[in-house]
What does this fold into?
Amino acid sequence: MTSPNKSRPVYAPLDADPHGTEHWFVTSGATDEDRARAVVALSRVAPLEVWAVQADASRAGADSLHALAEAPRRFDDEKGLLSALEPAMRDACIGIRIYALGSEPFIWSVRQLAERYAIAPEAVHVAHSGSLRRRVYCIHCRALNEQVTSNLVACEGCGRHLFVRDHFSRRLAAFMGVQADAEMPGELPEREHIYR
It folds into this structure.
C-alpha cells in the first residue's frame, strides 16, 4: 500500500556499506526472497554477525544465513533478540553498520535501540519485509498497541476505538491512532483488515 503521506517511510533494499568496520545483519519475520537478496548484498562485507529469530533461521533458505556468518545468533523471539542486541549496541565500536530486515515494528525497534546508544542514523539501514501489521500509538493515553491488522483497533490502554492513520512517527516507531468516534460517539467507520 502506498501513501502520499510524507511521514510514511520509504524503504530501499539493503545494501552493504563498505565504509563500515563491523557489520550486523538483524532479521525477524522477513520473507525468504528478501532475506536471500539481503544475504547476496551483505556477502561483500566482513566481519559480519547475523542475529535472527529462530523461526527465520529454521525456514527455507536458512542455509544462506550460515553462508554469511559462521555461527548466526539465534533467538526464540524478537523480544529475546532485542534484549541481547541492547548491551551489544552499548559496547559497539565506531564504524559499526547495522542492517535490519523484517516487520516495521521490528526494524524501527532496532533503530530506536541504536539511537539510544548514539549510533548514527546513517549507520542503521532498515528495510521492511514480511507482515504489514502495525504498531499503533494512542494519542490519547500514549499506549502502544501491537500487531494491528485493521484500520480500527480498541486501545489496550484506554479502550477507545482508534482509527489507524497512515502517519508514522519515527521517534515513537509507530503509526498514530486517533479516536474514531470523537465527533459522533458510537459512529465508527467500517472495519477493514488491510495490514496483514
Summary: The radius of gyration is 18 Å. The chain has five helices and ten strands. The chain has two domains: 22-128, 134-179. The mean pLDDT is 90.
